[in-house]
Design brief:
Elements lengths: L1 H12 L4 H45 L3 E3 H13 L10 E9 L7 E8 L26 E11 L12 E9 L8 E3 L10
Parallel strand pairs: 1-6
Antiparallel strand pairs: 2-3, 2-4, 4-5
């Protein structure tokens, strides 16, 4: 009995493995903090890139008078390249021109729209109700809007934020050189929107 008590007292006083136990207890917390910081900085970087690409895209479009669909595709590809090196497979881009009639209480309508794949996300003439203030669109003029949605999934560090994070950006500009920017099928002015 005395021998057991002596062994127990010797074990109780032994502090050789104390640092290893502390390290084993703190390692998961430190790893979570490390990967959380990596993930957080990646999220901020992607958010900034999506906002910059959206701003650049709407600014380039607002400088034009007429745009062909091929020119629009080139501008959209340029905006996508601003997002490099992130994977843009989950990126959706919609560009649209909004107009409002001169009458009091006229709703904001879609003049034209085009998306990243050449489709038409909004039908011409349909009412656009996503503006917080319809007065942002001047009567008989247009407002250019770029809507970007990007779903970010980190892959390697997705253990911290388990769900993919979605960035939604809507950027607006008033045309600079014309009251309305026309979208044309070809270089022929007869193929432009009215």
């Amino acid at each position: 009995m005395i021998l057991r008590r002596v062994r127990f007292m010797g074990f109780r006083g032994d502090e050789r493995g104390f640092a290893a136990v502390e390290f084993a207890l703190l390692l998961p917390v430190l790893m979570l903090l490390f990967f959380g910081m990596l993930e957080g900085s990646d999220l901020f970087t992607v958010d900034r890139r999506v906002a910059n690409a959206s701003n650049a895209l709407v600014d380039l479009i607002a400088q034009e008078i007429n745009l062909t669909e091929d020119e629009m595709d080139d501008i959209i590809v340029g905006a996508e390249r601003l997002l490099n090196p992130i994977n843009t497979s989950s990126l959706t881009i919609s560009v649209l021109s909004l107009t409002r009639g001169a009458g009091e209480g006229e709703p904001v309508r879609v003049h034209w729209s085009i998306d990243r794949d050449g489709g038409e996300p909004y039908a011409p003439g349909s009412i656009y109700d996503k503006l917080s203030n319809d007065n942002a669109v001047r009567p008989e003029a247009s407002l250019i809007i770029v809507e970007m949605t990007y779903t970010y999934d980190s892959g390697l560090t997705s253990q911290v934020f388990r769900n993919p994070y979605q960035f939604n950006t809507r950027t607006m500009r008033v045309p600079r050189r014309a009251t309305r920017i026309q979208l044309c099928e070809t270089d022929d002015v007869a193929t432009c929107t009215t």
